[in-house]
Amino acid sequence: MACFPKSAKVRFSGSLCIYLPSAGGIWPAPPSDCPQRSILNGRSGGGAGWHRLPPPAGGKDSARDGTGFRWSIKLLVAMLALTLTTAARDPILVPDVSQHEIEVRQGFTGTQLLLFGAILTPEGTRAGQDYDIVVVLEGPAAPIVLREKKRFAGVWLNANSTTFQSAPSYYAVASSRPITKIVGDQTAAIYELGLPWLQLSPTGTIDPAAQTRFAAGLVDLRKRHGLYREDEGSVTITGQVLYKATIFLPSSVPVGSYTAETFAVHHGRVVASAISRVQVRKQGFERAIDDFAHHSAFSYGLFTVVVSVLMGWLAGRLFALI
In the prediction, which pLDDT does 24 show? Predict the structure, then answer.
């Protein structure tokens, strides 16, 4: 018979003495037929005392000669070695982007962002396995109110509405193959790999069918504006080491901090991930107008009204002269 705390979770073909410590952590003397030795100390719930479990059917009490104890040590060492070996096989990603800062100036028509990197072993050598790569570029998240329009008496009016508390202002995903052939639905939902698995959480209570309808409407609206996109099969992998993907940012791209996260997938399991940052900033006259509108909203609104009135008056005078 061998003695282990219950938290050790050790099982072998022999009787098992389990110690359940008291609230004060006092160890009472073990029974006479239980050797005073343990390989792990710890606390677990339940009553205090030593509890002897009988050996399984057909088993034998092998701890008296030390065989059971040695067998349990070998089992723990084997499990630890297996864990370390599995972790050592997982690759690491070394990502980068072509531009860490994108400036939006007058006449900006959009830009191509190149995301590239390498798949290496922890030792820095070639990974040498077939990995799929998924790259997700996500812009700053912000609340958004979505309204549904319906036609009443020939006029389109706002009807139902909902608020999503955190919707990315920009979202693009590029992958080496279709997402459905790389991972399952559960993994895709956990890592939000694709528009069907994008997590859009509404505020308050809402009917699940209405939530699905509003979420689909938001995705469709932003896809038509070029702010949400999917490019399956656009990631190229060279020599099982180097990868690259190109994602287009439209002229209406929102400013802020962007996250470019790369995932390495092997047999449907995400084995590595890495993050790069991209800043989108407005410069020149556009930045001055943007800062004015955000930091002095009342003055900006008053200024626009005055300019509109003046432009209307000037237009009227010109037409009167003609």
Answer: 44
Contact 320, 141 (CB under 8 A): no
- Give the whole-angstrom CA distance, residue 178 versus residue 132: 10
Residues of the chain whose pLDDT is less than 70?
Answer: 1-89, 128, 285-287
Determine the 3-state secondary structure of 49 from DSSP.
Answer: strand
Query: Whole-angstrom distance between the N-terminal and C-terminal Cα of the chain?
Result: 110
DSSP tag of 318: H
Residue 233, both tokens: 């099969």
How far, in Å, CA of 84 to CA of 158, rounded?
59
Tokens 């949400």, residue located: 228
User: What pLDDT, on the 0 to 100 scale, is given for residue 41?
Assistant: 38
Q: What is the pLDDT of residue 76?
A: 64
Task: Say how many domains are in the chain.
Answer: 2
Could you give the dihedral angle defined by the CA atoms of residues 153, 154, 159 and 163, in that order, rounded to the nearest 10 degrees?
Answer: -170
Residue 315 falls inside a structural domain: no
Whole-number pLDDT of residue 304: 86
pLDDT reported for residue 239: 86
Tally of CB atoms within 10 A around 154: 5
In Å, the largest CA–CA distance within the chain is: 116
Residues 69 and 201 in one domain: no
- Check residue 286 and give its pLDDT: 66
